[in-house]
Every structure is written in structure tokens, then in C-alpha cells.
Write a structure and sequence with these properties.
heterodimer; A: about 150 residues; alpha/beta; five-stranded mixed sheet; 6 helices; about 35% helix; B: about 550 residues; 20 helices; 14 strands; about 10% strand; globular
């Protein structure tokens, strides 16, 4: 998605880091995703995602990032394990803000707040998903989630 | 702290692109100095955001390395852990805490635990304890922790400070049903906490199973790694999984460095173990010098040793170990160059040996004269006795009571670098040692100093003089940071200020003898051994 490399491992979605992948081609690198869903406030949500990435740049989420990378230890290929150190040290990462929206958001518009982020433009990808039936889609997601729950404890 | 011991350790760092070991030292040194300048030297507020980011990135990279890469050698693990801990510790001094919910309430508290464990993995126990104590300053908010989480935090603090007496049993499960996720977290925390508690108890001789705690943590890690329909539990509980791996690595290190791993001498009727038990209450881990000495010469001591380590790096602990073992085969002589030092050493040895090990510590200090009391006391020497003497007194004893040296098993020579001096005292020490080696051919010598530059030469001399093997313990490791700073003033500024002050003084009443002046100072400093990449700072005082 971000480059034409092969993705080694993709982590589950969990706060505060929504999505983490380690991919490996000539070099090993990290992909960090921030997912937002909004009916009509796409720009505002993208700005909020950019703020999050700015905090990642500043090292504010080092602990969370390390937790998530550590969690990938059992599934990362052996040859990638030793390369993660330099991926982290050399800031080899790309950012993927993913905005699901229904209306009022132009993904092609220049975004100033993304330009201050550390990874160069080639390492940033905006994934925009325009949903035709916004509420219907998320209702379906909620129904699907409820179906997977076998037991609810109170 | 950044002496040649650190230089040596940094050589074992994993290769980081565009970052040499020297540069790592410079980054840490500069950031630490700037943090201190900001905190206490009255310097201007600095924009540290880039430095903080670099420190955090360095810490994350190296911690990830030691967590992710299997089969790393011990030195690389220690080096990575040390730099990661230092980087986190220094960054904490700079940064405003990022308030993010986390294990143990917030990220800052978890990060202190993480830093402490990294120091422990690196073998810097005093730093780990300092970090653990700093958690007390972050206490606000612990009251909101669940019982199990609060208990685990206390267990970890006890581990980092090596205080076994403070650990409470794990709390009972709450009577009300909990969500499955919370139950799993509680179970993981309980198993980790119990394992750590048992390890600390083992260190203090309150438990005898050395391997069970580490195996239990390995089991927890294995269970978390089992893939399920929703991924692994490691993903669901990544913070606890991260903690478990750090604990597993730390416990491997503290097991290896435990005082109780030193083998006792044969047939000493459990006295050495009694010494170990007693010492383990306050210092259950061996520092590098003692570990090296024990590895090379104990049980025994099997040979002589020349120990040259920095001040505060555990020379006394080496002597204590050697004495505790040597007492099973004879009495021990401790040579101290001055009366004051002899008194201090006698008090220290008394505190270690008298109460629990049935060893008598006697002090004979002063010049070349005997009191009648000393003369009669020396006739009774033998068995489990430790005599602390000045070289002068020892020379006299050798002349007047030579037979008592037949049962001497160990001779400790403190401040052994004095041997190289060209003065009467050095001559007296040398003559005393020569006579001891003649009178007690079975004696084992232990030379202690922070300043011997040629320990190998001394070892070679002892080897050839006695035909008994001599080991060298030459480890530059030190447990504390040392800041060396040079203060400089600019002469034209001083001259100008002096003239102004003199003129001011002339206008004051005649009883005024002085008047304060403000002089800009330039400080050039670096952490120990790192003066090369020194950091300069201007202040005024």
C-alpha cells in the first residue's frame, strides 16, 4: 500500500496506535496507520490524524510503539527481527491516515498539516474511503461484531 | 559514569546505521549535561525537543533490539540495556511527562519501571534502585489502580531496590465478576508478580528454587504467544508481554550475578553460606569485580589476586568474599596504610564478620612500638581472626611473633598502588609483604587499589615469587555517574569587574572588607571519561 514492499506483519487495531505493520523489501520499515470514520468532518479528522502523527514524530508514543512491535515478536520472520532496530533508529516509517466518510471531504486537496510531518511525502499515503450508505455500513459492522460475541459478562 | 568501562561496554552495541559508539556516548553525555544545566546550574531554558526525540528513538531502537533479536550475547544485551536506560532516564529529566493511560496508571510510571529493569539488565543495580525510588514522586494516581496492578507495581519496586522484606502476598480475586479481558490481565499480573517475588526471595535465601521464577515467566510468555482466532494474547496484552520479556531477561541476569551463586569452600561447616545469607539481606548481587574474583579464584581463594577497580566499584566486597572463604583455613591479615584507614576498615569488617560469623576483628595501628597489651594479644592469634594492621605494626609483628604467620591464609593489601612510591612507607610495605611471603608460603595475597596502572606486572611478579597463580581483576565498571567540570573565567572580564568592585568598595565605610561581584563563568564538563566531547555552558555566579 505504502510502497511495493512485502508486508511482514500487521498488528491488530488498538488505541492509541490503530494500525502497525512492519514491511520488508530492500529495507525494513514501519507503517503506522490512524483510522478515522466521520460522516462529514473528514478535514477535521485528517487534521487530528496529522496531530497524532506529529506526536509520533516527537517520540511521545515510544512506549506504545514498542509494546506493539514487541507483540509482533512471535510472528515476525527471523531475518526481519534484527532489522527493526535500524528501522526505528533511522526513522524508516510511513504514515497512513485512513478516513472513512460520507460527504464533504476532498482527498485530493493539498493538506498543509501533513507537510510538517517527518516522513517525506513519498512515505505518506491518505486512504480515503467514501461510503455510499454511511450509517448502514457501520450498523452492519456493529451487527457483525455482535454476532461474534459468544458471551457477555456483567 | 562514562568512563573506560562504559567505553568498553559501548563497543558491544549493535550496529546502528550512522551511529558509532562514540556518538552514542556524546549524545547521552550532552543531553545529560544539558538536563542538569536546565535543572540546577541556572542556565537558560533550552529547546530540548530534538534531543528528547533522539533520546527516545535511541532507547526504543536498542530496547527493541534486545527484546526482538534471539540469541544475543550477554555483553550486547547489557550494552543495549544500558544505553536504552540512560537515554530514557535523561529524557525523563528533560521532558514534560506525556500523560497517556498505561499499565501502572500512566506511561511515566511504566517508563520508570522499564528504565529500572533495563538498568538491572545492564548490571547497574544502584541506578535501578534510584529509578525505583523516583516512582514514589509519581505516586499521585496509584489509588486508582486495581489491587493486582498496584501490588505488581510494589513487587517490581521491591525487585528494583532488592528489598525482599517489603513484598506483600498477592491480593485475593475480587468477589464480583470481572470482564474476561480483566480476568486474563489479573492472571498474567499475578503470575508475573509471584515469579518476581520468588526470585527476590531466592536472592535473599528465603526460597531455594533458583530456576522456577524464570521458568514461570517463560511459561507466561509462551502462553501469550499462542496464536488464537483473534491473534495472539501478546497482541491483546502487549504491555504485559513487553514487561514479561524484560523481567525474563532481568531475572536471567540477577540469577547469574547473585551472591548465593558463589560456591562455598569445602568443609567450612556452613559458615560461608551464613556470610552469604547475611550479606544477601542488603546486597544480594555481586558487582563485576566481586563476580570476576569469585569466578577466577573461589572456592579458595585458589590463588593471589590483583584487583584494580574504580573507587566505589566494590573493592570492599571483594575483600569480604575473600576473607569469608579464607577464614576456614587460617587467620587473615588486612594491611591498611594509615591509622585512620585501619580504624575504618576494622569497623567495617567488624560489622560484616563479628556478629554472624564468629570471627574476631582486631586492630593494630600506629608506629614501630608495641604496647604490652598488643604483645600479649598477638601471642593468641590464630583461628577465625582478622587482624587489621598498618605495615609498620605488621613489620614489628613479623619480627617479634614470626611463628603466628604460619597459619596466615590471606593477606589483603589495601591501597596497593603505594608499593610503587619512592618513599619509606612504600619500602616498609614491600618489606612486610616479602617477609609475609617468606613466613607464610601458603598465604594468598589480595592486592586492592583504584590506581594500579600495571596490574599484570604485579601479577607476574607474584607468580614468579611464589609459584602460585595470580589473577587480575581489572574492571573499569563503576556504579555511579561522575561529572568532571572545569570552570573558566575570561581575564578581561575579571579585570573589569575587579576594577568596578574596587571603586565600589572605596565608596563604602572603611570596615567593609569585601563586596560581591557577578562573574560570567564558562563551564566545560563531561561525564567521567567523556571530556573529549565536552559540553560548554555559560553561567554566572
Amino acid at each position: 500500500m505504502c510502497t511495493q514492499s512485502s508486508v511482514s506483519t500487521v498488528d491488530r487495531i488498538s488505541p492509541p496506535i490503530d494500525l502497525l505493520a512492519i514491511y520488508d523489501d530492500d529495507v525494513t520499515a514501519l507503517m503506522i496507520g490512524e483510522c478515522k470514520a466521520t460522516k462529514s468532518k473528514g478535514t477535521q479528522n485528517l487534521k487530528s490524524a496529522a496531530e497524532f502523527f506529529g506526536e509520533v514524530d516527537a517520540g511521545d508514543y515510544r512506549g506504545e510503539l514498542l509494546d506493539e512491535i514487541t507483540a509482533l515478536r512471535p510472528v515476525l520472520p527471523a531475518e526481519v527481527l534484527s532489522e527493526v532496530t535500524n528501522a526505528l533508529w533511522q526513522r524508516r516509517r510511513c504514515y497512513i491516515p485512513a478516513i472513512a466518510f460520507a460527504e464533504g471531504f476532498d482527498p485530493h486537496k493539498p493538506r498543509e498539516h501533513l507537510s510538517t510531518l517527518e516522513p517525506p511525502p513519498t512515505h505518506r499515503r491518505l486512504v480515503s474511503i467514501q461510503l455510499q450508505n454511511f450509517h448502514g455500513f457501520f450498523n452492519a459492522v456493529a451487527d457483525a461484531m455482535r454476532e461474534t460475541v459468544e458471551e457477555v459478562a456483567f | 559514569m562514562f568512563n573506560r568501562g562504559i567505553d568498553r561496554l559501548l563497543q558491544s552495541l549493535p550496529l546502528l546505521d550512522a551511529m558509532e559508539a562514540d556518538q552514542v556516548r556524546r549524545v547521552l553525555s550532552r543531553a545529560w549535561f544539558e538536563a542538569e544545566a536546565r535543572r540546577g546550574l541556572g542556565g537558560p531554558a533550552l529547546d530540548m525537543s530534538a534531543a528528547i526525540e533522539e533520546l527516545r528513538r535511541l532507547a526504543t531502537s536498542l530496547e527493541a533490539h534486545l527484546i526482538l533479536v534471539p540469541g544475543l550475547d550477554r555483553q550486547t544485551i547489557r550494552a543495549s540495556a544500558f544505553v536504552a536506560a540512560e537515554a530514557l532516564d535523561v529524557a525523563t529529566g528533560h521532558a514534560s511527562p506525556v500523560e497517556l493511560p498505561s499499565l501502572f496508571g500512566d506511561r511515566a510510571r511504566f517508563e520508570r519501571i522499564e528504565t529500572g529493569l533495563l538498568y538491572l539488565i545492564a548490571g547497574y543495580d544502584p541506578n535501578a534502585a534510584v529509578v525505583a525510588r523516583s516512582i514514589a514522586a509519581l505516586e499521585t494516581g496509584t489509588e486508582t489502580l486495581q489491587d493486582m496492578e498496584a501490588w505488581l507495581l510494589e513487587v517490581l519496586r521491591s525487585y528494583l531496590t532488592l528489598q525482599v522484606g517489603e513484598i506483600e502476598p498477592a491480593p485475593e480475586r475480587p468477589p464480583t465478576p470481572q470482564p474476561l479481558h480483566e480476568l486474563v490481565r489479573d492472571a498474567i499480573m499475578r503470575r508475573l508478580g509471584v515469579a518476581v517475588t520468588n526470585h527476590v526471595r531466592w536472592l535473599a535465601y528465603l526460597d531455594d528454587d533458583r530456576d522456577a521464577p524464570r521458568e514461570e515467566i517463560a511459561t507466561v510468555i509462551d502462553l501469550l504467544e499462542v496464536p488464537g482466532e483473534m491473534g495472539t494474547a501478546a497482541e491483546q496484552h502487549s504491555d504485559l508481554y513487553h514487561l514479561a520479556i524484560l523481567l525474563h531477561t532481568a531475572i536471567a541476569g540477577t540469577t547469574e550475578r547473585a551472591l548465593r551463586t558463589v560456591p562455598p569452600p569445602p568443609d567450612d561447616r556452613g559458615r560461608f553460606q551464613e556470610f552469604q545469607r547475611d550479606q544477601a539481606k542488603t546486597r544480594p548481587l555481586l558487582w563485576p569485580a566481586a563476580a570476576d574474583y569469585a569466578r577466577q579464584t573461589l572456592p579458595g581463594p585458589t590463588g593471589h589476586a590483583v584487583v584494580t577497580v574504580p573507587t566505589g566499584a566494590g573493592k570492599s566486597a571483594v575483600a569480604d568474599l575473600a576473607i569469608a572463604q579464607a577464614l576456614h583455613s587460617g587467620w587473615v591479615l588486612y594491611l591498611a596504610p594509615t591509622n585512620a584507614l585501619a580504624g575504618q576498615i576494622r569497623r567495617q569488617l567488624d560489622a560484616v564478620f563479628r556478629a554472624h560469623h564468629a570471627a574476631e576483628v582486631l586492630e593494630f595501628a600506629g608506629g614501630m612500638e608495641y604496647s604490652s597489651l598488643e604483645a600479649s594479644a598477638l601471642e593468641m592469634i590464630g583461628g577465625r581472626q582478622i587482624l587489621v594492621m598498618t605495615p609498620e605494626k605488621c613489620t614489628l609483628a613479623l619480627r617479634q611473633n614470626p611463628d603466628m604467620f604460619a597459619e596466615l591464609s590471606l593477606c589483603v593489601v589495601d591501597e596497593a598502588h603505594l608499593l610503587g612510591n619512592r618513599n619509606t612507607r612504600a619500602l616498609v610495605i614491600e618489606l612486610a609483604i616479602a617477609e609475609i611471603l617468606h613466613r607464610a608460603p601458603q598465604v594468598r595475597m589480595l592486592f586492592l587499589s583504584a590506581l594500579i596502572a600495571n596490574p599484570g606486572d604485579i601479577a607476574e611478579w607474584l607468580n614468579s615469587a611464589t609459584e602460585i597463580g595470580t589473577v587480575v581483576v581489572n574492571d573499569p565498571w563503576r556504579p555511579t555517574r561522575t561529572l568532571r567540570t572545569i570552570a573558566g573565567v575570561e581575564k578581561p572580564v575579571v579585570d573589569e569587574q575587579r576594577a568596578l568592585a574596587k571603586a565600589r568598595l572605596a565608596t563604602m565605610p572603611s570596615h567593609r572588607m569585601n563586596t560581591p561581584v557577578q562573574l560570567p563563568l564558562t563551564l566545560m564538563g563531561g561525564l567521567h571519561g567523556a571530556l573529549g566531547p565536552a559540553v560548554t555552558h555559560r553561567t554566572s555566579c
